[in-house]
């Protein structure tokens, strides 16, 4: 489903070019739950950004469900991001002036879905992430764990086949982190959504079926996990 071939990413810095990814190859099957680990600066977030079409590789190719991302123009990439991928970030990235329901509805509204459909979908997603009663709350009125669940509901709104999560438990305490991992795991196992999660936390990574380790912009280890989280 996802094929990353010889992907390199260079950033132009004053001191010269910096290589964040070097000829990286990764293949991810549909329905896999992958953790990406590695030291700080090893290229994890860069890889995730490229997988999500938020950034383009300097060279190499990224194919997702038969679509070569580097062949899309800016408009095509925006549509790809909005309809095919759900993003979840460490700091949630909710819009503070919008309610929970409005945050979740954003992509649907941007895609001009009818209001009745938006309302139905938002209500279903709020139930799915266990936030009943919070539809009219603002992000600042919620705990970190609740905000991350709003972010996951927002990511699910367009029924993506792929969720890209960058340190989704990084700002959460153990219990809230655990709840988010269970939610991602359930979405993966029950709804067949492919999940690629960057994490520093080995315990979080063990939720995944497979752990890819990067170092200096290259894959140095690619290992299947045991039975995953019970
Ligand atoms: N926009 C940018 N401009 C210049 N350099 C960048 C840019 N984005 C990332 N880098 C550099 O590329 C390298 C890889 O960054 P990346 O964020 O992918 O690492 P990471 O493994 O996710 O690290 P961390 O665990 O600290 O988040 C880093 O050295 C970083 O400084």
TrEMBL record:
InterPro entries tied to this protein: AAA+_ATPase, ABC_transporter-like_ATP-bd, ABC_transporter-like_CS, ABC_transpr_LolD-like, MacB-like_ATP-bd, P-loop_NTPase
Sorted UniProt keywords: ATP-binding, Nucleotide-binding, Transport
Pfam family name, one: ABC_tran
GO molecular function terms noted in the UniProt entry: ATP binding; ATP hydrolysis activity; transmembrane transporter activity
Keyword RNA-binding recorded: no
SUPFAM superfamilies reported in the protein's UniProt record: P-loop containing nucleoside triphosphate hydrolases
Cross-referenced SMART domains: AAA (SM00382)
Keyword ATP-binding assigned: yes
Location of the ABC transporter domain: 2-227
Superkingdom in the source lineage: Bacteria
Name this polypeptide is given: ABC transporter ATP-binding protein
GO cellular component terms attached to this protein's record: membrane protein complex; plasma membrane
